[in-house]
Amino acid sequence: MTQRRQAQKIFLDSRFANPDGSIDLPNSGITCHPDSTCWLTEFSCTASWWTIDESNDTLYVREKIVTIVDGVPVTTWNNRRVVLTHGPYDFFTLAEEIQQRLNGLGKDPFMGTYACVPTSGAPGGGGNGSTQRCFRITAGNQFRIPSSDAAIRAAYSIPEHVLTDSTNYLFRFPQGDSDFSTQTSSLVDLRRAHNLYLHTPGFGAYTCVGPLGSSNIIAKIPVDAAYG
Question: Cα angle at 98 between 75 and 128, to 5 degrees?
Fold first, then answer.
C-alpha cells in the first residue's frame, strides 16, 4: 500500500467559509511538526468588479393572472424582463435592487407588493459550504422565475443565437418553473473572480489539499471572464 505524502500546499476558498468567516481545513486538518513553517503564496479577492452588467442584468419573472370569463377561470401570464441597474453589489444591496425593480415598471397590480429577503440555509439550494446565502422572493399572488436557460427561451421565445443576459449566472430558483407566491433561490454567488481546480484522478504527488479535501490538484486556473 502506497503511503500518501504530507500536504505541502493548501487551497482555501471563502465560498466554503463558516458563518463567522472562519475556514476549516479539509480532512480534519494537516500534520505539522515543531519546525514546520507556513506562509501565504497567493491571495485573490473580488475587489470592486461590477456584479451586474450587460451579461447578467435581466431577471425573468412570469406573473400568473387569473380572471373569470363567463364563470370560468382563465389563466394568462404577464412575462416581465426585470432589468437591474449595472454596478457593484453585495448580498444585501442586490436584494434591495431586485425588490425595487420587481415593484417597478411592468408589474401587474394584481400581484400586490414584492419582497426580496436575504435568507440562509434555505431549502431552495444553498451551497457546499456552511454559509448558505439565498434570496426569498414573495408576492401577493403566484409567479414563476424560470430556473434554466432553456425554460427562459421557451417562455419568452428567445432564439438560441440570442443571449438571455439572465441573472441565472448569479443564482437560480429550483422551483421557478412552478406556480408559487414564494420562491427561494440557490446560493447567491456574487464573486466575479473564481478559480478552477484541475485534478488528475489516480495520479499526482498528493501534496496538495483542495477546498473540498481533494489531494490530487495539479493546477489552479483563475477565471476572470464575464458570466456565461
Answer: 100
- Cell numbers given for 21: 468567516
Is 177:60 a contact under the CB 8 Å cutoff?
Answer: no
| Phi, psi angle pair for 16, to nearest 5° | -110, 30
> Torsion angle, CA of 11/12/16/17, rounded to 10 degrees?
170
Predicted model pTM? 0.66
End-to-end alpha-carbon separation of the chain, Å?
44
Nearest to 192 by CA among 94, 93, 49: 49
The percent of residues above 90 in pLDDT, for the chain, comes to 38
Report the sign of the C-alpha dihedral through residues 90, 52, 63, 114, in that order. Answer: positive
Phi, psi of 91 (to 5 degrees): -55, -40
Alpha helices in 69-140 (DSSP H): 91-102
C-alpha cell read off for 180 = 408559487
Alpha-helical segments (H) within 10-136: 91-102
Instruction: Report the length, in residues, of the chain.
Output: 228
For residues 24 and 106, is the Cβ–Cβ distance under 8 A? no
